[in-house]
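Sample A.
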Amino acid sequence: MLFPKPKIPLRKQKQHEPTSPRLPNLEMCSSSPLFLQVGHLFAIFRAIDGASTVQGVMSNRKRFTACLEEVQRARPPHMDTSDKALFHGARSLNSIHRDLCLRKVSMLKRTTVAGGTPGGISTNEVSDDIDDDMATTKARHEVRRVLKIHYTSVLKNWIDRHHSHPFPTKEEKAELCEKAAISERQLNNWFTNYRRRHLH
């Protein structure tokens, strides 16, 4: 080869810091006695993004678990739709928060103790990026699952009360959309699917 191509070093992939998922709006459950405690729990969950040291992450985890215990103690003996949505949401957040803390601590330790080959891409970094993407997707699924439990319960309760004529008026649709925290299009799709499965 007359003119060999110069070797170009591989660019090190940018390491993405684990971030907390987007959380649902709790206002739809403001009537629940768990509302304030779970709101505080969500605030602690969001604060994990600002933790820049291992000690900061551990402190956030301790505050989160202490707040979760308060939620469990405040659990009413007879839970309505809002209570169940908040309680199950808090429990789901616990496992997500634990995984997020572990990944942040791992990342911070790798930053302190230099790892990988200079100018290259380590296998650990690639696998960590994949793990971060998977964990974020899992967190989003958990949040969607909690919201689905809530709006399904709201709509089924309405169906039970109007079983003889399960066709909400325009005003009832607006009220249901507000209670279930969904759009009118989602509401119409849900009723269409329900009638197809149960009324034919």
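Sample B.
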Amino acid sequence: MKKFFMACLAIGLSLACTFVSAQTGVKLAGKVQSADGKAVEAATALLKRVNDSVVVKTAITDGTGGFSFEKLGNGSYLIQITGVGFQSLDTTVSLMGADVLLPAIVLQKQEKTMEGVVVTARKPFVEQKIDRTVVNPDALISNAGTTVLDVLEKSPGIMVDQNGTISLRGKQGVTVFIDDKPTYLSAADLQNYLRGLPSSAIETIEIMTNPPARYDAAGTGGVINIRTKKSKMRGFNGNLSASYNQGKYARSNNSLNLNLRQNKFNFFANLSYNRMNSFNDLDINRRYKNDDGSTLSFFNQNTYIRRMGNSYTGKIGMDFYQDAKTTWGMVFTGQSNRASVNNNNTSSLLNPSQQLDSSIKALNREKTKFENKGVNLNYRRQIDKSGHEITVDLDYLNYKTGNNQLFDNASYRADGSLKLQDFLTGNLPANIDIYSAKTDYSKPLKGGYNFSAGLKTSFTKTDNLAEYFYTVNNVTTPDYDKSNHFIYKENINAAYVNLNKDFKRLSVQLGLRFENTNATGNQMGNAVKPDSSFTRDYNNLFPTAYLQYRVDSAGDHMLGLNYGRRINRPVYRDLNPFISPLDKFTFYVGNPFLKPAFVDNYELSYTFKQRITTTLSYSRTHDEMGETIEIVNGTYFSRPGNLSTVEMMGISINAGHDFGKWLTVNLYNEFTQIHT
């Protein structure tokens, strides 16, 4: 299967590179002038598709202020004009088969004061596209000095719980991408990574509850794609930012961005340092009942968790512009994260009269490390200026995590005397290697259609070791019931096609993705546990469809309707059958028989002037994965399992408005109903 798919990848690349056909199209021309009627020379004109804001062509105005775009397909376009000393201006145009000469485009002078330049236009915090919601972090002043995780928590529809699990419109199983590349991290590791990434390094955050066929089908909750910044300015430039935040504890976030663009080369570097300092105060009260409903006992827990750490993140890369149509690139990324977690837990067992029977004080100490490094080789060939292009990406990623744990448990009688004290220590290193290759091809067709297709293959290997030792009365022995060594391998091969077209007021996008999954898990045995293994192979199709209708010609009122099918594959931790301690009375156990979940998503939306968006959503999930609880002798065992079919209905409203130059308000409200 691997040889077959790599052969398909090579054939697809060869065919795409040689598939060049002549195309006639529409010509769009215009002139740019100042308010006093003078021509504006050397202004930049960007032509973008309305449905996804992709730049189709670029032009520079001549001495008469004129510019033109040729060989354009039918559809709706956004023209963005910028010039030094002038305010930028955006205008839309619809092409219907005939050449278009625009009326004069007038730029207003940029206002200036003694303090500097007054910015009179900026991107909104939230923008609505046909297939995604785009968040611009720089649009909110309150995002200065924060992390990407902080911005996500402010973004519409996104919630992050205390365990780092990200949910989108009430649904978990969200896949996070960085620059169109999946992170392949667990919830806790992803939280550490995003907590160490400054928001100043982010260009946009794309939220896709129904992602198009170009993206991996993984994640029943949708996809969040985080796009990082890369300067396009010529010469040498850079910026330095530093911030300090004081709450109960202090934290800081600092970053340095450098860029050098000269001749055919562009070099860039992004470095950041983040000091983390946070806490959680958690109270859990449990009541145990007899079969007749009467109270058997009470179990109360108070937990105070303190997290401290340092994170260093870096990205260094180079682009080589071979000619006007060909670009080669290389990017190296890395992060080093060191943290300590102190968990103080007091558990009290009370009789039915709520009198103290016994108590346990647990002091849990963890020292964690998280390291990742990656390299990306990329190629882009712009076959012509109509948007006909091919891209190739080769990626390698490596993640190393470590966790040294100490559980100090002391049991006390009702009178406060010590009953028993024991220690459990753990060493939990893990190594993840990911190799992936993909190619994407796009071409405008006659009649205003845009076609895209792609191939991708990825190979992931996870090596997870957990060693635990139990100490009582100064005697230490291995705890084989909790110790384990789990190796998980996964290969996913995919192909997709996508077609979209802009009519006068209606935009349509259809896609289909095929994925072939091959996975194996090997549980290495020890002195008391035998070896075990499992194998999974399956094929699936994932269709997507989007409709967007502009009720009026200005696009102030827009209706949207979309559908998509997704998959949520179990992560390696959920498949590992061994026991992992969370505290003395709570353990996590994996399930090697866990099946992937499939979901069908439907959405209907209305957007008013890109300020207010109301969305009705419905989803139906088959084999939903969730937590099951088993209580054995007062001990909680948490295990993932496949639940029955789950239906979710919801309504959400997102509203944003600028109240002057220094105040922006964005409000989000959501109501969700779940049926199981």
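B remarks: The domain at 24-117 is CATH 2.60.40.10 (Immunoglobulin-like). Residues 146 and 199 are 6 Å apart (CA to CA).
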